[in-house]
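Sequence, please.
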């Protein structure tokens, strides 16, 4: 069953592209934008990640951290981050355990889905957005929702 608005973000500890462990507790008190994406260096995922990169200042101004999550390993994430100058953590969800725990749906029944979660400072999911084909829409949606929720 997919997690949705009002559910608590599950506790997890995942390595990012630099080998640092990331946990939701490390951003307690701040907003967290978690975006699950299918695969490093694919056209849609690159457009999405670069759009988050290009809007980093607006998320910082909203006191929000951005974390990308896919099933790729740290080597792939480092290469992806380096190639596109990504400045936010890319978490390694090997075996897609967190993806399954959160109920991120598969697209067309087999492709990993593209879903963004907006999580408040208490660890409660306040918004979800799913759109496989338009990665940059996730950035626009996250900015709009954060502006409304923080209003």
């Amino acid at each position: 069953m997919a997690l949705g608005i009002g559910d608590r973000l599950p506790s997890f500890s995942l390595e990012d592209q630099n080998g640092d462990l990331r946990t939701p507790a490390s951003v307690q008190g701040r907003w967290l934008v978690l975006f699950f994406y299918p695969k490093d260096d694919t056209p849609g995922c690159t457009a999405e990640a670069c759009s988050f990169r290009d809007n980093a200042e607006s998320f910082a101004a909203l006191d929000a951290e951005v974390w990308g999550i896919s099933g790729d390993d740290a080597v792939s994430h480092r290469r992806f981050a380096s190639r596109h100058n990504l400045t936010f953590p890319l978490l390694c969800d090997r075996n897609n355990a967190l993806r399954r725990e959160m109920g991120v749906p598969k697209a067309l029944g087999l492709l990993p889905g593209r879903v963004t979660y907006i999580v408040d400072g208490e660890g409660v999911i306040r918004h979800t957005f799913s759109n496989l084909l338009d990665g940059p829409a996730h950035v626009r949606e996250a900015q709009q929702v954060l502006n409304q929720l923080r209003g």
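Helices lie at 43-54, 56-61, 74-84, 97-102, 135-150.
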